[in-house]
Amino acid sequence: MSRRETNSYMGPAPPQGTGLHRYTFLVYAQKEGTVVNGTQKPAERANFHIREFAKEINAGSPLAGNFFNAQYDG
């Protein structure tokens, strides 16, 4: 199994005055040769639909997951 980073980690960025946000991490097995180029722009991350994305790349079900809550802190 080889590993290659295509996108760097981008931390949470909840806007001021929007309260608590839940951030979810899901891990999928990626078929060899599948290249996924995500976005680094917060505005483009809004309304991301993981089920649609997983179906597009034929990822199957997630192998693991975790989440955390965050809110704007100035």
Automatic annotation (TrEMBL):
<dbReference type="InterPro" id="IPR035810">
    <property type="entry name" value="PEBP_euk"/>
</dbReference>
<protein>
    <recommendedName>
        <fullName>Phosphatidylethanolamine-binding protein</fullName>
    </recommendedName>
</protein>
<dbReference type="Pfam" id="PF01161">
    <property type="entry name" value="PBP"/>
</dbReference>
<dbReference type="InterPro" id="IPR036610">
    <property type="entry name" value="PEBP-like_sf"/>
</dbReference>
<dbReference type="InterPro" id="IPR008914">
    <property type="entry name" value="PEBP"/>
</dbReference>
